[in-house]
Design brief:
Layout (H helix, E strand, L loop, with lengths): L43 E13 L4 E12 L5 E6 L3 E7 L4 E2 L2 E3 L8 E6 L6 E7 L7 E4 L11 E4 L19 E9 L5 E4 L12 E11 L5 E4 L2 E4 L4 E5 L4 H7 L3 H12 L7 E5 L8 E2 L4 E4 L12 H8 L7 E3 L5 H20 L1 H22 L23 H18 L1 H14 L3 E3 L1 H13 L3 H7 L1 H6 L13 H14 L14 H9 L7 H11 L7 H13 L6 H10 L3 H11 L3 H14 L5 H11 L1
Parallel strand pairs: 1-11, 16-17, 17-19, 20-21
Antiparallel strand pairs: 1-2, 2-8, 3-7, 4-5, 4-8, 6-7, 9-10, 10-14, 11-13, 12-14, 15-16, 18-19
Helix pairs in contact: 2-3, 2-4, 3-4, 4-5, 4-6, 5-6, 6-7, 7-8, 11-12, 12-14, 14-16, 15-17, 16-18
The chain binds zinc ion (ZN).
């Protein structure tokens, strides 16, 4: 067994980036009840948070204070915030910092504890002195060995969905928006970055100041600290990465400025100044996180051939859908992700053509079908509007919100026509910029601005069925990709006896390879697997997307020559999209389960808490 911290991190890459701005300080107060927050923004709502935190890599904590400005709406004598595992030593009120009293509500393992601060009615600022827990769920602390450069430790946050409260006392629901600023102190020689204006330079004294002048929801607050550098990619785009990863990152993200330009041309001016990307270490649990001005990205998209940059288009699209117009609660998550998937595909189409975009769409649709099958065709979890009360919002982060949401919008486009659709979407973003959106409010806006009383159109779309009904509606607009069709033909030919060396795979991108692998049935013979591996070198591939699908075959056929690579993969990659399906397949057999448990013992410390939670349930 390979030990976790002695491994070579073959998949590692780091990029980081940040910055820019435009201003709009509208504070939105959304009187929407949020089942995942204890806060009472309808009584007193946060308008600005200033953080002053020291990043302590020895203790794995952040320590300092949060100065919170708020608006007392009802004349209440309490400010209620969300917290989870925060160690609070003192709270003061007013500019003079007069100490005040506070109390905690009962602890809920998922939601944490309400923090109720006693305030005088004319007070509009409190300062909370605190430190985070070494096990704060939002924060990931990596050793030097877990980075690409292997010389310096690294830390990053992942606040979505309800983890901001584990590092900042705040009103932790997406319906509350506030501006923020921060003074961060970190070890010399490391760079600190936030989802805010960054100046792109390394500060030798380890002190950094940040400002986020536009209001954002708490889940968009983000911090990363590590040995990263900046490289400009265009007028307002750039990449942050560990020095050893920089060259590959620059190559991979070459089209980023074009993407920003294409997106702005579609739906209106980019509102956040700069758009930069930071490439994180491989334990980052998601593909990307749309932290405003500074997308956090997994190194698993650095394929060497720019074939996985749709992820950047996705995170960039969130600069409109999600960051600008935000789902009011996590039940409305499809408004963030459905719009973003639709928008992502439009960016890809503009840059790489319709055939390429269709290929991505069809692959996505196939994944949606799998998810619906898994959840059950009549399950309420397949409704676009979710019911997540008493549940982790992570339960709703699947293909339903993303791809069913996207195909709802594609279906609408097919009914009303692209021209009308584009006018509607642009208007929707413009008129609701820096606000939050409920599903109900969206439906009213949709009916008023797009349907406009036209019952023929309304009947064709069947909006209610999409949003409050299960499964994939019969009127779904279907995409047929000619490129994928060629790939599935090659899979058929191989199954019919054509040798691997005679298959026509010239010029295939990652996506054709994925489709090819997905069109081969589970349970190939060991000889078939060996033949494919010999010809196409799947097992030693550095492309995580391809590896993930390939390992599904090697696991199902118990193909032992791939086991060592599978182990390395599971020990090094923490992206949930890849590791969850692999663990799921492994635990199907007693042998596989034993292997999974053995590897997981070593791999677990390298995974983020959101990945650990999912996999704990699977392997135990
Ligand atoms: Zn997204």
């Amino acid at each position: 067994m390979l030990k976790f911290n002695s491994l070579v991190f073959i998949f590692i890459t780091l990029i980081s980036s940040c910055t820019m701005s435009t201003t709009n300080n509208t504070q939105m107060i959304t009187p929407v009840s949020d089942v995942h927050s204890f806060a009472k923004p309808e009584e007193a709502v946060i308008t600005h948070i200033h953080l002053n935190l020291e990043v302590n890599f020895e203790k794995h904590i952040l320590e300092g204070f949060a100065r919170i400005n708020f608006k007392n709406i009802t004349g209440t004598s309490h400010l209620t915030l969300d917290t989870r595992d925060l160690d609070i030593s003192k709270i003061t009120q007013g500019e003079e910092e007069q100490e005040t009293t506070f109390s905690f509500g009962e602890n809920n393992p998922l939601l944490g504890k309400a923090l109720t601060i006693d305030v005088e009615k004319n007070t509009s600022v409190v300062t909370v002195y605190y430190k985070t827990s070494p096990t704060a769920a939002a924060l990931m602390w990596l050793t030097a060995e877990q980075t690409a450069g292997k010389q310096f430790p690294f830390m990053f946050s992942q606040s979505q969905a309800i983890l901001a409260r584990t590092w900042v006392p705040c009103q932790d629901g997406p319906g509350v928006k506030f501006t923020y600023s921060a003074d961060i102190t970190c070890p010399h020689s490391l760079m600190a970055l936030m989802s805010a204006e960054n100046d792109t330079l390394l500060h030798k004294d380890g002190t950094y100041h940040f400002n986020m002048p536009q209001p954002v929801s708490s889940y968009l607050m983000a911090l990363a600290v590590g040995d990263v550098r900046f490289h400009s990619l265009g007028i307002n785009t750039g990449v942050y990465a560990e020095p050893v990863m920089m060259e590959r990152s620059i190559y991979e993200f070459d089209d980023m400025q074009k993407m920003v330009n294409a997106a702005s041309a579609l739906y209106g001016e980019y509102a956040w100044g700069r758009y930069d990307v930071i490439v994180l270490p491989p334990s980052f649990p998601f593909g990307g996180m749309e932290n405003p001005r500074l997308t956090f990205a997994t190194p698993t998209i650095i394929a060497g051939d720019r074939s996985l940059v749709a992820l950047v288009a996705h995170e960039l699209a969130h600069s409109w859908s999600g960051n600008l117009v935000t789902n009011a609660t996590w039940n409305d998550f499809w408004l963030n992700e459905g719009f973003t998937m639709y928008f992502e595909n439009r960016i890809m189409e503009k840059l790489y053509g319709r055939d390429y975009a269709d290929m991505l769409d069809e692959l996505g649709f196939n994944e949606l079908q799998e998810t619906v099958k898994e959840l059950g065709e009549t399950s309420i979890d397949t409704h676009l509007f979710l019911s997540l009360k008493d549940r982790d919002p992570d339960d709703g982060m699947n293909e339903i919100a993303y791809i069913k949401g996207q195909f709802f919008l594609k279906t609408v486009e097919s009914v009303v026509g692209r021209e009308k659709m584009d006018v509607f979407v642009k208007k929707y973003f413009t008129e609701h910029a820096f606000q939050s959106m409920t599903t109900e409010k969206f439906i009213a806006y949709f009916n008023e601005n797009l349907i406009q009383g036209d019952t023929a159109i309304s009947n064709k779309i069947q909006l209610e069925k999409w949003i409050y009904g299960p499964g994939i509606p019969a009127n779904t607009f279907r995409v047929k990709s000619t490129l994928l069709e060629k790939a599935s033909t090659q899979a058929k030919d191989f199954l019919a006896g054509t040798l691997a060396k005679d298959l026509d795979t010239k010029g295939w991108s990652t996506h054709e390879w994925l489709h090819f692998l997905r069109n081969l049935p589970e349970g190939l013979t060991k000889a078939q697997i060996a033949e494919l591996d010999k010809k196409f070198h799947f097992t030693p591939s550095g492309n995580c997307e391809i590896l993930c699908d390939w390992f599904q075959h090697t696991i199902a056929s118990n193909y032992l020559p791939a086991e060592a690579q599978l182990e390395i993969f599971l020990l090094n990659v923490g992206r949930r999209k890849f590791i969850v399906p692999l663990y799921k397949s492994l635990v199907k057999t007693a042998e596989g389960k034993a292997f999974a448990q053995k590897v997981y013992t070593y791999a677990r410390p390298g995974y983020h808490s959101v990945a650990q939670q999912t996999i704990d349930e699977l392997v135990n």
